[in-house]
UniProtKB/TrEMBL annotation:
GO terms for molecular function: asparaginyl-tRNA synthase (glutamine-hydrolyzing) activity; ATP binding; glutaminyl-tRNA synthase (glutamine-hydrolyzing) activity; transferase activity. The gene is gatC. Gene3D superfamilies: Glu-tRNAGln amidotransferase C subunit, N-terminal domain. InterPro entries: Asp/Glu-ADT_sf_sub_c, GatC. It comes from the Bacteria. Its EC number is 6.3.5.-. It comes from Gemmobacter megaterium. This is Aspartyl/glutamyl-tRNA(Asn/Gln) amidotransferase subunit C. Allows the formation of correctly charged Asn-tRNA(Asn) or Gln-tRNA(Gln) through the transamidation of misacylated Asp-tRNA(Asn) or Glu-tRNA(Gln) in organisms which lack either or both of asparaginyl-tRNA or glutaminyl-tRNA synthetases. The reaction takes place in the presence of glutamine and ATP through an activated phospho-Asp-tRNA(Asn) or phospho-Glu-tRNA(Gln). SUPFAM superfamilies: Glu-tRNAGln amidotransferase C subunit (SSF141000). Pfam families: GatC (PF02686). Keywords: ATP-binding, Ligase, Nucleotide-binding, Protein biosynthesis, Transferase. Belongs to the GatC family.
Length: 96
């Protein structure tokens, strides 16, 4: 069983960029230790032959044809461009 001490809890809080009062560090260390204990229990589960799930209900993922398109509305897209010419984005020349 992994146990998190107060200095490790302080380091985790620092890395997570959360402010934890010094008097709350023992409680945080205890909670983190509980999480690690739970994860160790999960490692004991035999998952050989079990397919990963994409959802709790069995269903196929929606698929679409992988084809190149202009999005169906190039005029709307180019309307936001600072400079567009002949149906394309115009960019400054950066290489001579």
């Amino acid at each position: 069983m992994s146990t998190i001490d107060i200095s490790t809890a302080r380091k985790v809080a620092h890395l997570a960029r959360i402010r934890v009062a010094e008097d709350q560090l023992p409680q945080l260390a205890e909670q983190l230790s509980g999480i690690l204990t739970f994860m160790e229990q999960l490692n004991e589960v035999d998952v050989d032959g079990i397919e990963p799930m994409t959802s709790v209900t069995p269903m196929r993922l929606k698929r679409r044809v992988d084809e190149v398109t202009d999005g169906g509305y190039p005029d709307k897209v180019l309307k936001n461009a600072p400079d567009a010419r002949e149906g394309f984005f115009a960019v400054p020349k950066v290489v001579e």
